[in-house]
């Protein structure tokens, strides 16, 4: 039942599909999974090779339209056909295929075996099926009966095999990120999270170092310590590295790992606070991405820095007005303890930049303002101009909506504090996403090309499933980062 590539100390994952690559349609193919689209005169079969005579008429007769996400079962010559809608015939791109196969993966109940061909590309089909078929079992006394998985042969010629294997790795890494984000905060807290990351490292061929609170105090990681000091569960800093021989380009990855964000003394309202189990989504995406990079043997020298802390109010918590000293010496006036992500990221970015990487990507569920600016599905990308634009473009290519946002000149003045070098919130909520970006920019090395991806909305779907996006953890922006790394390696 488990699609988890690794056996981790996490609640069980389920899946509705199990894929295998085949170079020809097997003799016992099971159900035929057939793409259909919506043309001006109704349902169409865009892949003519599969258009068994009369199929179209049958589909029409049962009311199929070919619209995106529609799944229709018919029987033809004693064989089950499952038609899945790609949407508008004029508008079929990779993302349409990914979404359609995502919805398909959730509609295969009772089907043991099936076959799909790959005229629309191996990658979107594999990603759509695996991402759409994901389920998270949670922690239940009596686990719901698993939906039996559908074994699917993905048929392509021999040259498609590599694309299949790569797509499986990328999808599995995204699912790993989802598992981490979906795990409740009493199970996944800084120390247990560091342990799980170490397990992932062992399975993917990564080096790992876990630094505890004593080390952090000794080396002056004042941001991570300040955020973690209100919690009974002390903070950690995890360093993962992938250093293949001969790699010359260096990349640093940094991800926000707040295992739960209550806001601290600047306490959040109770309603919806539970969504803050996802506040380690940035770090989980980095774990997924670097694990994929290692399994894909990407020829880059990659170092990931993950600051893990739980933001709690208590007698030992940071107070509004406290001044902290970040790793490297910059001081900050903490005016709002709920603007904690930037505090832990600042330390991690400063540490990452000590090694003067060519590129730095950081990602975080950083600001509610991201959703005000761009909605809940589109990531805000900030940073150095060229690389920022490149990462945003890459996000759109892989189906993770992203938009480049400028840092704002008017925030420069607001960043100043009468008692410290900088302060952690601006004067108003306007441009709150960019204020956080500007804060982080103070810790990025001068010659490093930098992209900061705010995924406050995109990392977590509090609504219903759609396309290949389930409820709760989405796995964003793993695919953006993996694709960016692959491109940098070329
Ligand atoms: N983790 C939150 C941001 C967030 C909000 C992520 C909603 C996902 C959904 C972050 O730590 C936070 O609390 N930010 C504050 C910053 C403010 C105090 C300047 C915010 O956005 O309200
Ligand atoms: Mn917060
Ligand atoms: Zn937060």
Task: State the gist of this model.
By secondary structure, this protein is of the alpha/beta class. It is built from 14 helices and 23 strands.
End-to-end Cα distance: 37 Å
Helical percentage: 25-40%
Determine the strand fraction and express it as a percent band.
15-25%
CATH architecture of the largest domain: 3-Layer(aba) Sandwich
In terms of structural class, how would the helical and strand content be classed?
alpha/beta
Number of domains: 2
Characterize the overall form: elongated
Which residue ranges are poorly predicted, with pLDDT under 50 across at least 5 consecutive positions? none
* Chemical compounds bound to the protein: ligand BES, manganese (II) ion, zinc ion
For the sheet with most strands, the description reads:
9 strands, mixed
Number of helices: 14
Task: Write structural notes for this entry.
This is Probable cytosol aminopeptidase. InterPro entries: Leucine_aapep/pepB, Macro_dom-like, Peptidase_M17_C, Peptidase_M17_leu_NH2_pept, Peptidase_M17_N. The active site is at 268, 342. Keywords: Aminopeptidase, Cytoplasm, Hydrolase, Manganese, Metal-binding, Protease. The structure is a single chain. The chain is α/β, with parallel strands linked by helices and 490 residues long. It folds into two domains: 18-158, Leucine Aminopeptidase, subunit E, domain 1; 188-489, Zn peptidases (Aminopeptidase, 3-Layer(aba) Sandwich). It is built from 14 helices and 23 strands. Helix 11 (385-398) links the parallel strand 18 (379-383) and strand 19 (402-404). The longest helix is centred in the middle third of the chain and has 22 residues, at 161-182. The protein starts with 12 loop residues before the first strand and ends with a helix. The model has no long low-confidence stretch (mean pLDDT 96). Bound molecules: ligand BES, manganese (II) ion and zinc ion. Residues 261, 275, 279, 336, 338-341, 365-369, 425, 432, 456 line the site of ligand BES.
């Amino acid at each position: 039942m488990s699609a988890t590539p690794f056996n981790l100390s996490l609640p069980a994952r389920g899946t509705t599909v199990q894929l295998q690559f085949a170079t020809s349609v097997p003799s016992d193919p099971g159900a035929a999974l057939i793409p259909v689209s919506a043309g001006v005169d109704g349902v169409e079969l865009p892949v003519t090779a599969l258009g068994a005579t009369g199929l179209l008429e049958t589909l029409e007769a049962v009311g199929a339209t070919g619209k995106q996400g529609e799944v229709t079962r018919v029987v033809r010559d004693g064989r089950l056909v499952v038609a899945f809608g790609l949407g508008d015939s004029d508008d079929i791109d990779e993302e349409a295929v990914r979404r359609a196969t995502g919805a398909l993966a959730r509609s295969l109940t009772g089907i043991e075996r099936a076959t799909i061909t790959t005229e629309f590309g191996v990658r979107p089909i594999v990603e759509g099926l695996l991402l759409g078929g994901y389920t998270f079992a949670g922690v239940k006394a009596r686990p719901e009966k698993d939906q039996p998985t559908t074994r699917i042969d993905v048929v392509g010629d021999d040259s498609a095999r590599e694309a299949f294997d790569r797509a499986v790795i990328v999808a599995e890494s995204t699912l790993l990120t989802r598992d981490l984000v979906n795990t409740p905060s009493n199970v996944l807290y800084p120390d247990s999270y560091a342990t799980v990351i170490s397990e992932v490292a062992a399975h993917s061929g990564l080096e790992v170092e876990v630094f505890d609170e004593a080390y952090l105090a000794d080396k002056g990681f004042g941001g991570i310590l300040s955020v973690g000091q209100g919690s009974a569960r002390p903070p950690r800093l995890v360093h993962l590295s992938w250093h293949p021989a001969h790699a010359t380009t260096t990349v640093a990855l940094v991800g926000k790992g707040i295992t739960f964000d209550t806001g601290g003394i600047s306490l959040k309202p109770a309603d919806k606070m539970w969504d803050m189990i996802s506040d380690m989504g940035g770090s989980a995406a980095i774990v997924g991405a670097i694990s994929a990079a290692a399994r894909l043997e990407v020829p880059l020298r990659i170092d990931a820095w993950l600051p893990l802390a739980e933001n709690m109010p208590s007698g030992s918590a940071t107070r509004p007005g406290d001044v902290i000293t970040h790793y490297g010496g910059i001081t900050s006036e903490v005016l709002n303890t709920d603007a904690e992500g930037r505090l832990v990221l600042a330390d991690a970015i400063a540490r990452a930049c000590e090694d003067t990487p060519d590129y730095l990507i950081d990602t975080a569920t950083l600001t509610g303002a991201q959703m005000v600016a761009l909605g809940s599905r589109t990531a805000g990308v900030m940073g150095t101009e060229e690389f920022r634009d490149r990462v945003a473009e890459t996000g759109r290519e892989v189906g993770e909506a992203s938009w480049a946002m400028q840092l704002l000149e008017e925030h420069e003045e607001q960043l100043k504090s009468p008692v410290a070098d900088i302060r952690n919130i601006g004067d108003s909520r306007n441009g709150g996403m960019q204020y956080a970006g500007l804060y982080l920019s103070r810790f990025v090395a001068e010659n490093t090309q930098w992209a900061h991806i705010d995924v406050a909305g995109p990392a977590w779907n509090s609504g219903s499933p759609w396309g290949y996006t389930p409820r709760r953890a989405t796995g964003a922006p793993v695919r953006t980062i993996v694709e960016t790394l692959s491109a940098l390696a070329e």
